[in-house]
Amino acid sequence: MKSSVYYDEIDGQLYPQWMLLPADLSASYVHYSLNLPYERFYPEEFHDSLAVITVNQASLTKDPFNQQSYSINIEQLKADLFINGGNLHHLEAADYFLVRFDDLEDVLQMSVRRYYSG
Question: Where does the source fall among the domains of life (predicted)?
Answer without folding.
Answer: Bacteria
